[in-house]
Each structure stands twice: as structure tokens, then as C-alpha cells.
Amino acid sequence: MVYLSGLLYNESQQVFRTVFKLKNRTVLHWFPGHMGKGVKDMQKKLKSVDCIVEVHDARIPFSGRNPESFQTVSGLRPHILVYNKRDLANEDLESVIINKHKENGFQNILFTNCKDQKCNGIKRLVPLVQKQILSSHRYNRSENRDYCLMVIGVPNVGKSSLINTLRNKNLLKKNAAHVGAVPGITRSVGEKIKISDDPLIYVLDTPGILSPKVPSVDVGMKLALCATIPDKEVGIELIADYLLFWLNKHSHFGYTDFLGIDNPSDNISEALSVFAVKNNFTMKVLDCEGKRVLRPNLNLAAVRFVDAFRRGIFGKFTLDIDEIHSPNIKSSHKHLIYKRVNVIKG
Hints:
By secondary structure, the protein is α/β, with parallel strands linked by helices.
């Protein structure tokens, strides 16, 4: 079910926040020790790598990508950018995203949905990899008959899922890479995983790597909303507040039906309170007299609200809508420059 009826609300009736303010930005700087070690491990493996496959969340095509670290890793090797989870993003914006990348000279862009093995992006990844490797200098690996890919990206964007999908599709074999719904499942560079016999291709799974410094509150909160930063690091009620802010800002009011509120709200506590009461989300707390009383469980309400967004209950949204239409986005992604652009949708 997708909640859409709230879209009929006249937004002129209410003024919403235009800027999301955060008192403590340090909650957005999540760079645990395994990430720094992961970058070093990835660099050590480069001699055995023919091609880099960068996976990112299609809902945040520009936010949170880590060009500095990935440029260090990729070097001169062919680099393919895969936007995964396209089933949760606004597919109508894909052509605009592609044009933005063309301005930067990105070489290869694919859109995938790892839940669907019939997805065109999944089908064409192996042929594209083979084509790019054959047209590049393999240096010390020129005599090797097998190809080796390194899959990189920020946490929880589907790197391991992509590897498993390719393995299942091409070899009809069970999963080899560990996956999970929270970031940080893969914490080190793994062993080679075969994903194809013809051509013979192996893949190295890697830990998700974030930038040590998040450039803005919006970027950090979008990363958190897409579960790239653990909920516990940011706070689920804060993430829910940003979701409410973003939906209001872009006039997506279908959430009112889901929360059971009459009109759009800019107060997350009030909205979650109504939602909690109507769904009997309660918790026992001590009042001023030391007695246990029932109160609305706002934390559980926030979890359900954010989870609904992550499952696409409110619709397919690309959170970077402002960046997509901004003429200045080019300058912030100038670190990764390539010569040609090949675009594959599906």
C-alpha cells in the first residue's frame, strides 16, 4: 500500500521549516576504525584488481559518495557506477541524474534492483565489465585469464547483495557475501568470490566507507534516513524528524494517512504521539510521584515511520531532488573524472 491521499492538501494553509537545524552535528560523523583499516586493505589488494564497481543508493545519487577515498582506491582502473535500490527511487529522475554525470565525464552508469534478477542493469553488468577491462591496460594482470572486480561504496547500499545476485544468476549458487539491514556487516576486504564462469570473474567484497567529515546536515541526515549511518548513532526520532521535514518541504503529504493525523504537521513529537496512541504503542515510565504510568512510545512510533519510508510505503522518492536541479552540483563531484559515458537503465 502506498499512501497518496494526503497529496491533496493545500500547502498554503501552513508554513513548514525550510532548513533542518541540528544542534550537535557530531552525531553524523560516523567513521569507525574498521573503515580506515578497510581503505588500507583495499589499496593493498589493488594489484589483483582489473575493475572497480562502485555501488550507491539510487535515492541519494549525489549525497554521501566518497570521491576522495574511492579515487585513491580506483586509480586508473575502469570504474563502473551502480545505482542500486532503484525500485525505491523516482525512476523519472534517472535521465536527469545521467545528464549530471555526463557533465562530469563519468564513464559507466547502471541502475539496478538486486531483488530482481531480470533487471537489465543486473543482466548487463558482466558484459560491461568484460568490455571495459578488455579496452583498458591491465598492467601486471595482462597474462591472467580471469578478471577480478572490487566492489566499493558507502555502507548498506547493497554491495554484498549485488555480489550474491550476480552469483545466483550466473552460477546458480547460494549467497557467498554476508548481508544485513544495518550498516557495517562487512568489516574487512573478503576473499575472492566467483560470480561468473564465462568469462571467469571473481569479486572482492569490501567494507562500506564513509567520508570522515560529512559536508552538511542535509547530506548526513539523508545518509541516516537511508540507513547508511546506524540509527543508534544519530537517533531514530531525529531521523524521523528529518523525514517529516523532507516530506513537507517537497509537498509529499501522504504520510498523514499513515500516521493517522488530520493535516500535515511540522512537529514530530505531536505527530508521533498521535500515531503511537492510535496504534497502542505505549511504554511504562515513572511519574513525579514514582508511580508507573503508560506513555506513548515515541521511539517505537519513529521506528515504524522511518521503516515505512525505507520500504517505499509513501512512494518512490529521490532525496537529492534539490541537488539534481542545482547548477552547482558539478563542482562537488569533480574528483572522479572519466572519458566516456555509457548508460544502462533497468
